[in-house]
Each structure stands twice: as C-alpha cells, then as structure tokens.
Inverse folding.
C-alpha cells in the first residue's frame, strides 16, 4: 500500500514536470513562421525543442513508475484535460510577443531554480535530466529576460504591451509555488524540490528585471489554481485537441 | 574589360570570388536574385511544415520536425548574410518577397494536407533541393559556396528523415499507406518542377554555368533526381504517379513523362494553390512584428547612447 | 457491379451535400460570442443550426446508401480530411466579418439555386430535404446579401474590407460549378443537379449584388479545386481536429 | 407623494407598471440594474457554452447547443429591450458591462473544462436561473414580466436538456461518469451562490420584495433549489459535493453546508477564475465589431437620405 502511494506521488510529480515542458513547448511551436524576425523563429523553435526533449524524459519516466506499460507518447497523446498536471501559466495562449515573453520569463526563471534544486534529487533520473536541462533553461531564462528588458525599455508601445503581458499573467504565478500533498511528500522524500525555498529569490529576481525594464510590478491578484489537480483553464482542451489528433484518429498506427 | 577578363579567368580556374573582389554587375545581380530566392525559400518553407509541428504524431517526430524548422531558419540566416555581402539589406530582400518581386521555390505553394506530406517534403523536396545544391558548394561566389556546405550537410539529414517517415507509413496500416501514396501523388510533379524549366526554355542557364553559379543544367539534375527517387519509391512499395516511368537501358536512366509546364508557370506567376495564403502569413508576421523590431532598435539606440555618455 | 458503382456515386454525392453544410455550420459556430451585435450572434447561430440540420439529413442518408452501418455521426466525426468531400470555399477560415459574409453570400446564393434544382430530384430524400432547406437557405442568402450591400456601401473601411473578402475567396468559386464524374452521373440519373444550368444565373446575381454594393467584380483567378476529391486546403485538418476530438478521444462512449 | 402612494397601491394590487406610468426613481434604477444585469448574463453566458459548440460530441448535441445559444441571444435582446423602455440605451448598458460597472451572474466566471460542464450548466445553472426567474413572470414591471414569460419557457427546456446530458454521461463509460461527477463537484457551490448572499446580508431584498421586483428571498430560493436538485443527482447516481447534505424531516427540506461567501464576494469583485478572460472576449468582440456597426449606421443614413430625396 505504502509503496503504491509513494509511486502515485512520484508518478504525479513526473507528470507535472513533463506536462509543464510539453505544454509550453507546444505553445512555443505555434509561433513557427509567425515570428518578427528569423532570429526569433530560430530561438523559439530551439526552446520548444529543448522543452519537448525534457517532456520526453519526464513522461517516459512517469510511465515506468506507473508500470502500466504507458510510455511518454501514450501519456502525451492519450490523456484528456482532467489528467494533465501542468501549471496554468504554460497553457495560456501566446497572445502577442510581449505576452509570450512574459510567460517565458516567469516560467523559465522558476524552472531554472527548480532544476537547480532538482540536480540534488535522490531520484537519479530526475537529477540527471535536471542537470542536463538546467543549461537549456538558463538560456531560455536569459533570452526571455533580455526580451522583457528590451520591450519594456523600448518604445512606448512595446512598454505598454510588456506591462500588459505581466498584468495578464500575474495571477498564474502563485500556482508555481503551491505546495500541495504531492509536492510536500516529494520534497520530504528528497525527490522533489521545496519550491518555497526559492520563493524569495524568485520574487527578488523577477522584481529586479521588471524594474530594469522600467515596468511596474503588478499588484498581487487572487491566485488562480487548479492545474496540478487537473482543473485547467478553457485553453488546454483546445491545445490537446490539436496536439493529439493523429494518435487518436489512428489508434492502431505507429509513426 | 581587363577586369572582366581577369574575373572570368579566376572563375574558370574554379577560384572563389570574394565580397571585396571586383565582379560584373550582372553576376552580382544574378547572385543576389538566386541567393535571396534561396533564403526566401527556406523561410517560406517553414510554413508548410509549421502546419504540422503542433500535430506531429509522437514526441520524437515533433522534436525532429522542430529541429528541422530550426535548421531552416538557420539556413535562411546564412543565406541572407551571404546575400548581404553583395550589398543588399535583409529588409530590402524581405520587402521584395512581400511585394511579390522576389520569388521563392514554387514547391512551397502546395498545401500540407496530411502527416505524410511531411515525409514527402523531406524525401522529395529536400531531395530535389540537395540535388540542386550539392554543386553549389563549388559555386564561384565564396560566401555562397561556404553557406551551401553547411546547408547541404543538414539537408541530407532532413532528406533521410523524410524518407524514413514515408517508409514507416508505407509499412503501416492501410490508412497510413494510403496517406503515403496520396502524398507521393501530390508532391511528385511539383518536385520535378523544382529544377526549373526545360533547358531549351532556360535562357540564363548558359551564362550561369559559365560563371559557375550553376554547374549542371535543369534537365540533367531532373534526370538525376528521377533516377535516384524511382527506386526509392519502389523499395518501400510506393508508386510514382507517372505511367511513363520506365528504365531505359540505353541511356542508363529512367524515361519519364512530360511535366505540365503550364502549371509550373502559373505557380511561378503566384497562382499556386496556397500562394496567397503563404504570402498573407509572411506579411502578417512581418507587420505584426514591426513594433517588436522597432522596440529592439529603440532599446539598442538607448543603450548605445548610454555607453557613449559613460 | 453497376449497382455498387451507382451507390458509390450517390454516397459520394450525399457526402458532398452533407459536408458542405457541416463544415460551413462549424465555421459559423466559431463566431459564437464574438459577433458585432447580439442580433448578428443570433442570426449566425441560426444559420449554423440550419446547416447542421441539413448535414445530419444528408450524412444519415449517405450512411444508409453505403450500407456499412455508419450513421451521420460516424461519418461526421470519424472521417479524416482525405475522405471529406466539401468544397474548399466553406472550409476557409472566417477572417473578419466581411470575409465571412462574402463566403456566405457566394455559397448560399449557389446553395439556394442547387436546392431549388434538387427539389426535383428523383431521390425522394434529397428532394424532401432540399424542399425544406430551400426556405432556410433563402434566408441565409438574403441575410448575407444584405450585409454585402451594407458593408460595401457603408464606410470607406467597410468598403475596402468587403472588396478584400471577395478578392480573397474568388478563386474558390469555380469549384462550385465543377462537373466531375460523380456530378455528371448524378445529373444524368436525375438525382443530382446540373450546376452548369444555373451558372449564368449565378454570375448575374452575384455581379448585380456586388455592383449594388458599389464594389468591383474581382478578376477571374486560377481556380483552386480538389475538395470534392478530398484534396483540401490546410485549414480543414485543424477544423476536424477540434470538431472530432470527443468522439475520437472516447471511442466507446455515446453522448 | 400622491403619485408614490398610487404607485405602491397598484404594485400591492399586483397590477403591472408600464413604461409610460410614473414610477419612483429608485424603482427605475433598481429595475435597470437588475434587467441589464440579467441581459448581460445571457450574453456573457454564451461564452462558456460557445467554448463547446465546436466540440460537441454528436450532430444532435451540436444542434441542441446551437439552439440554446441562439435562445440566449434572443433572451438578451428581449431583456435589453425591456431595459430600454426605462430610458437607458443598449450602448450605455454595454459600456457599463465592459467598464466593469455593471455586473453579470458570477457563475459565468467559471471555466467549462469538459463536455460534462455543458450538462452541468444546463442542469444546475439554468435550473437555478429558472428558480430565480419563475417568480419574475409576475414581477411588477410589465415589460420585464412579459420578457420573463418567454425566457422561462425556454430555460426550462434548457434545464431538461442539461440534465439529460448528465444522465447520459452518468450512465456511460467510466471516463464519462468521472467527467459528470467532476463537473457536479465544480459547479455545485457556484450554483448555490447564484441566489445571492444570505438574507441577513441582502439589504435590498426587503425593498425589492415590496416593489414586487423580487418575490422570494435568496435563502428561500436556495433551499428550494437544493431540495429539487439533490434527489435529481441521486437519481442518476451522482453525489452532491457537500457532506452536510441530509434530509431534515422537520423542515421538509435538506440541510446543507455553508457556502464559501468569501469566494462569492471575490467573484463579484471581478476575481473569478476566468473573469478577465470573459471580459476580454466581450470587449474584443465589441471593439472588433465597431467598424461593422459604423458601416451599418452609415448605410442606413445613406438610405434614409435617398428616401428623403426621392
């Protein structure tokens, strides 16, 4: 019994890590061919590729922990919204480029700190994936941070858009620091990270960048939660409908 | 006239011409047209594939396709840079694309309708592109030749991945086989058109070959492509949609049917099945991105100002 | 053999009728809640509802003709793009309201003439559905026509948008009058309509309305064909991914 | 004062007040607020359902949902018209909605996450709405009362359709049952909030009841709703997410747990889970539609000019 419960928490935790990466990678890949410059096309595709790679590792691992024969693909393409465990931030639509960069900055700053912590995970696979991914995520964080500053301190128009981007997404930040049962258990077992340990760091860094970008830190808003329990926004279902179409339409096929 | 003779001698000796070297105006113009067209093709070519990234059927296929699109953006960048060494700016080239003045490969005016089209593009379109590009690694203009070395290496990787997708589909369920054959049917002829009009209607070929901008004629390359591709189709149980395809022992290659050149010229004129859509997407991306480029410029100017003041 | 071939043509013909209605109904329903006035919300929902009703009749009939146990739902939700038989016009994205109205006007004007002709079909079901639907379609045609005139002869901005709408969609009109093997056979058997019989009428009416709207009849463009053979634009796949999600994700469920 | 007495006597006698009749300013204001809020709820209420029209799982369900949304647009129109008889324009009301000054039902600030939510909205939300609205068919203001007669007839139809969706899901596959129970869990408490704050915190109730704008208190209606809905849930094998629910023989109704009123007040303040999204969509629709409304006005003016000239 205890073992099953332990596995369930680890399974859930791996899904969270994998789904965050998968959903954000999917969102970024929607930008293909629609970017303001070829350089941006290249960098967003690159970030998406990193994230899909991370998702593959975490979801494959989740499938092994579950022990029901599901691999990363099965988990990615055959779960509906109630079984997705990503945070709400990553599933929010791209909006304009400022909103996309606000989302990326808020997420990658967090993910970088998370992966830094996870390099010390007692779960070898998590530690190894985090150690590899932390380099990728450092680059994502820097890229997003540069854009936040550039757009915030660019023209009047870009300043307003960048500020709007943060205002719009601010209510999804508290969920990143939610320590629910699964998160607490994982932290206590030395597998997961105690995200509250870097909450202040996070706030400090986000605040510093927003100020360097000549923007205003948004007022705190009522947190919107639910993603970790499968209660998402209305956007995820549409994302999955598109992403999962082929494997669902051709259940007998391999690709 | 001396300069021209010296230039032509260097080209004939297979030396590279570099940006600072003297070159005939027509050579420069031809190169700008060809390199920018090639760059535009990389950029527009991201669209038919971008249409399937969000629907790639496995995590691995999604990653491969993202990597491919990333490569294409990279190729676009090298090529724009190579063209810039000839004294044209990227903005100018992009405006020429959006106004319809500059061309891009006709092939990207066809829609990607099923996942098999991603395989077909890799296999046939990248395959044809390589056939066109391999000789360009020895083209006379140095920056272009060096860009092509990198491009070709990655393209042949893409071509193998595309063929592998097709192989997988052709060995798959009935629905997958049908998808694969249907994609081959739709992409075959447009791929043959990628080599350009028949030699007798290709007035610039001779000059371009003399300048080593081109090293084989359209018809030679097309024949080579057919000779390589027909057995590849056979090997995975697909059939090229041309009843005239037949091995010709005498010439040591395949005979094949006549390309519908009226279709080709219509597509060149901008009447391809999704030509309007492609240009609308590119223009929208460019216009929607104006505020971002302006902001980046404004920020860079402020930073430069600060550095100067400091 | 002959009988099977006959059925195949009828099956295909019914799919064309059904898919036109289904796909356009789906497109119109995307407008829900995004219309310029509540009255427009109401009228677009109403048109969508009529079209879904027509689709249901035609696709149910197609399933019966096929005789493989598929009903309208099975045909609507379990065919992929290569098996859809709608014309390309109806699958084109909504664009702005002017483009949506141009699409509706070009299609409903045609569909009205088609259904007028089909009331004389030797196939009783087709004749009955057409007789009922012709009233609905008359209303769609009038509504779209009114908007074309209102926007064309409204402000400078609306004039430009309305003209753009027609320019954009003009290349999909010739497909409406394609008489391929199936269409010819159906017309010869007295089941289908010979659309060429009303081509001139159509051109005259469309031209008259465009002129009344103070717009310019677009130059003829190279026709874009393929929908009737399952060779669609890139848009249909995305539409189906969304529309078919639930039945594909839950193949054992009924709703 | 005479007019006021006469007015109050007529209301007390259950006579209808009509637009041309004298009425107290506070009565007018209260009605405008209530009717426009009700109209806005119909319009905003189209959004959570609109989210599923394009994904309805069968042609029949799609048609039913389209018809429902069409009805809601119709209700919005009657109600805006009824409010307009009180001397306010539709534009004013819509601006008040978009600026956040006017409210709409808190319930529409929750997302529709699965198809079961469409069932839950019909069953619970329309069910609660009917409970609120049936007495309004006898409300003292004539145009409002007459609008409610039409609205109620259609709403009870919607309620039955919603319940039928839930019944179907609850009798379906495991995945469908889970969807149905999950939807009930999420929509139950917000539905109870639809009756407004508890009577002791509802300062306007007394006045509204005296004016026959309201005919039952919030708590009375809420109790009625629970009493009807709990057995409906039981009947299809679903469980209301409130362990305190228990039949109370003495009062002839169910006891139930305390609503989280802090949640309610937060949502009223505009902090509901998808409140920002709902308003953003409405505002965008209105702004994107400006050129269309302007064009319609310009055309109408031209036509009027022509008629005058003729």
């Amino acid at each position: 019994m205890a073992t099953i419960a332990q596995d369930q928490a680890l399974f859930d935790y791996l899904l969270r890590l994998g789904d965050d990466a998968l959903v954000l990678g999917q969102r970024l890949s929607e930008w293909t061919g629609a970017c303001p410059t070829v350089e941006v096309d290249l960098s967003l595709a690159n970030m998406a590729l990193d994230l899909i790679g991370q998702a593959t590792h975490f979801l494959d691992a989740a499938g092994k922990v579950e022990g029901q024969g599901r691999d990363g693909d099965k988990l990615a393409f055959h779960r509906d919204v109630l079984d997705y465990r990503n945070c709400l931030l990553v599933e929010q639509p791209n909006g304009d480029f400022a909103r996309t960069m606000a989302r990326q900055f808020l997420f990658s700053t967090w993910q970088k700190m998370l992966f830094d912590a996870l390099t010390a995970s007692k779960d070898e696979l998590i530690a190894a994936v985090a150690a590899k991914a932390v380099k990728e995520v450092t680059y994502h964080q820097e890229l997003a941070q540069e854009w936040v500053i550039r757009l915030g301190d660019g023209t009047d128009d870009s300043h307003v858009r960048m500020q709007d981007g943060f205002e719009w997404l601010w209510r999804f930040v508290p969920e990143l620091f939610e320590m629910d049962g699964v998160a607490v258990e994982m932290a206590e077992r030395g597998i997961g990270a105690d995200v509250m340990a870097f909450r202040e760091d996070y706030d400090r860094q986000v605040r510093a960048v927003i100020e360097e970008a000549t923007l205003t830190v948004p007022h705190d808003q009522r947190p919107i939660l639910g993603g970790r329990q499968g209660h998402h926004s209305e956007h995820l279902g549409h994302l999955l409908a598109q992403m999962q179409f082929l494997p669902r339409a051709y259940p007998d096929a391999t690709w | 006239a001396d300069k021209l003779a010296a230039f032509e001698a260097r080209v004939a000796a297979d030396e590279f011409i570099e940006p600072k070297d003297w070159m005939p105006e027509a050579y420069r113009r031809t190169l700008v047209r060809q390199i920018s067209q090639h760059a535009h093709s990389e950029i527009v070519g991201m669209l038919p594939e971008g249409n399937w990234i969000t629907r790639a059927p496995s995590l691995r296929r999604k990653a491969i396709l993202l990597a491919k699109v990333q490569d294409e953006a990279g190729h676009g960048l090298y090529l724009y840079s190579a063209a810039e060494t000839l004294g044209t700016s990227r903005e100018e080239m992009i405006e020429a694309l959006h106004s319809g003045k500059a061309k891009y490969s006709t092939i990207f005016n066809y829609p990607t309708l099923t996942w098999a089209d991603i395989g077909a593009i890799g296999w046939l379109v990248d395959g044809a592109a390589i056939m066109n590009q391999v000789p360009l690694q020895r083209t006379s203009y140095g920056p272009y030749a060096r860009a092509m070395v990198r491009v070709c290496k990655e393209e042949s990787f893409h071509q193998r991945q595309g063929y592998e997708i097709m192989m997988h589909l052709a060995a798959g369920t009935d629905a997958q086989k049908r998808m694969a054959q249907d994609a081959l049917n739709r992409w075959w002829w447009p791929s043959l058109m990628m080599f350009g009009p028949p030699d007798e209607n290709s007035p610039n070929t001779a000059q371009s070959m003399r300048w080593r901008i081109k090293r084989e004629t359209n018809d030679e390359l097309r024949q080579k492509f057919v000779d390589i591709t027909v057995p590849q189709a056979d090997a995975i149980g697909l059939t090229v949609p041309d009843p005239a395809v037949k091995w010709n022992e005498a010439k040591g290659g395949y005979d094949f049917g006549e390309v519908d050149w009226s279709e080709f010229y219509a597509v060149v004129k901008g009447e391809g099945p999704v030509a309007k859509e492609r240009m609308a997407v590119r223009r929208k991306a460019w216009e929607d991105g104006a505020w971002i480029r302006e902001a980046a410029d404004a920020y860079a100017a402020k930073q430069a100002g600060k550095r100067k003041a400091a």
